[in-house]
Amino acid sequence: MYEPTWCPGCGNFGIFTALKNALMQLSIKPTDAVAIFDIGCNSNMVDWSPITPFESLHGRPLPVAQGVKMAKPELTVLAISGDGGCYGEGGNHLLHAAKRNMDITLLVHDNQVYALTTGQTSPTSEKSFKTKSTPMGSHDLPVNPIAIALAAGASFVARGFAGDIPHLTDMIVKAVNHQGFSIVDILQPCVSFNPINTFDWFKQRVYDLNKSGYQTDQKIKAMEKAFEWPFASAQGKPPDNERIPIGIFFQEEREIFQPRIIKTESNFDSLTKDFI
Q: Which domains are assigned to the chain?
């Protein structure tokens, strides 16, 4: 019997449970959906994925996911990555998949550390965070995944928390149902290599953005909320507000990528007839 090799208490257990719950709610057959995995702790799910799995290269699940969606548009396509692979090695792929508005769903396991390689600083690690790659503390400010996704043009931007499975399940369901590029950045405590951003740390700070009358169709407001994060201000100083919003930051209806390609190809065929 194969069992997960995640550390006891890992946030990935909560994410995997939420993903399975979401797929059950969506009534998606295993053969009607594909999950493209990154390399990392997140890809441990590839061996017992509830839908058709494929493991890509590190930081490269989005190019594969886009190719699958273009070849088989009838499939539900998910890309599953870690913060290192998605916001580091694969950052360029995130930008272009978002601007194209590809009809795929990206789930990012964001534990703020490279965990599979036993604890190095990742793009989302906080400034001064000490790891084996930064024993004196990181000198960099963390990237802001929500702000990046908004600026790049993602048409559905949300955040979940591995410690709130019902809420995360709902975020995944809504992301998959959205027609266009959906990203859910998932706060995932790493119990072995991140002693700062623990389950208790997050539970003391997270709040549901969508329970406060917040409107999800205002990108400027969404961008303001993206910077509502403790210890991550532009000056590297702690802001007064230490709350962390989870939920849907922004959502809009916009033409997806594939119909534009079909229109272009149709016009190209008509234009080239005069030259053949």
A: 12-275 (3.40.50.970)
